[in-house]
Amino acid sequence: MAFKNHYKTLGIPPNATLEAVKKEFRKLALQYHPDVNAGNEFAVLQFRELQEAYETLSHPSKRAKYHNEWKLRFPGSDIHMKWGQTPVTILNDCIKLNKQMASMDIFRMNKEVIYHRIKNILSESNINVLLHHKDEALNQKLILQLLSASSELPYKYTGTIAGQLNLLAGNNETAIKTIRDFVHASKKRNYWEKYYPFLVLLITLIICSMIYSLT
Fold first, then answer.
1. Among 67, 89, 69, which residue's Cα sits nearest to residue 80?
2. Are 91 and 138 in contact (CB under 8 A)?
3. Which tens digit of pLDDT belongs to each residue from 195-211?
4. Which domain holds residue 199?
5. The CATH number of the domain where 15 resides is what?
6. Do 3 and 64 belong together in one domain?
7. Domain end: 26, 59, 84, which one?
8. What secondary structure, in 3-state letters, does the chain show?
9. 78, 95: one domain
10. What per-residue string of b and e applies to 64-82 under the rule 16 or more CB within 10 Å gives b?
11. pTM above 0.90, yes or no
C-alpha cells in the first residue's frame, strides 16, 4: 500500500499540535461529510482519507509509529520541518483528482467541491513553487490535467482557473492557446445550456403552430 501523507491530507505541518490536528479535521470533516454531500463520491473518498489521517495523528502511539515509517522512507528529512510541496507532488495531486473524478457520475458530482479542490491545487504557494522551479514540461502536464478536471465545471469558475493556469503557461504559446480554447469551449457550452430550454420551447411552439394551421 502506498505511503500516505496524512499531514498533507489535513493541510498541517508535521510538527502540528494535537489541537491543530483536531481543529483542521473538524473543519474539513464538515466540508466533506457525506451527510452534506449526498451522492458525491469524491466527497466520500476525501472524508475517508480525513478519517484515516485523524485516526493516525490523534493517537500518540500510532503517530509515533507513523513518524518512524516517515524517517525510513525519507531518511534525509526532518519530521519537525514544515511540509513543503514540490512540482511533482502538485502534479500528483492533479492526477489523483482526475482518477477520482473518472469513477464518479458526472450528473451527481458536487462541482463546487471539485472547484475548491482545483483552487487549492492552484493556491498562491503552489503557484510560487511551480514558477520557482521553471519546469515547463511539468507545468504543461499540470495544465492539461487541471483543464481535464475542470471540463465539467460551470463557466462561472472558468475565469479564475484559466487566470491561474495562464501564470503557469508563461510564454508557452501552445499552453496559452490550449487554455484559451478551453475558455471558449466553456463559454459556448454555457450559452447552449442557458438558451437550450428557450430553443426547445420555440421549436415546440412552431410545431404546434404548423399543426394548428394545417388542421
1. 67
2. yes
3. 667 767 778 878 887 88
4. 85-215
5. 1.10.287.110
6. yes
7. 84
8. CCCCCHHHHHCCCCCCCHHHHHHHHHHHHHHHCHHHCCCCHHHHHHHHHHHHHHHHHCCHHHHHHHHHHHHHHCCCCCCCCCCCCCHHHHHHHHHHHHHHHHCCCCCCCCHHHHHHHHHHHCCHHHHHHHHHHCCHHHHHHHHHHHHHHHCCCCHHHHHHHHHHHHHHHCCCHHHHHHHHHHHHHHHHHHHHHHHHHHHHHHHHHHHHHHHHHHC
9. no
10. eebeeebeeeeeeeeeeee
11. no
Regarding whether 127 and 103 lie in a shared domain, the answer is yes
| Statement: residue 143 has pLDDT above 90 | yes
Q: Are residues 23 and 94 in the same domain?
A: no
Residues 76 and 89 in one domain: no
- What pLDDT score does 195 carry? 66
Last residue of a domain, one of 53, 84, 115: 84
Amino acid at 181: D
Take residue 3 and report the three cell numbers written for it. 505511503
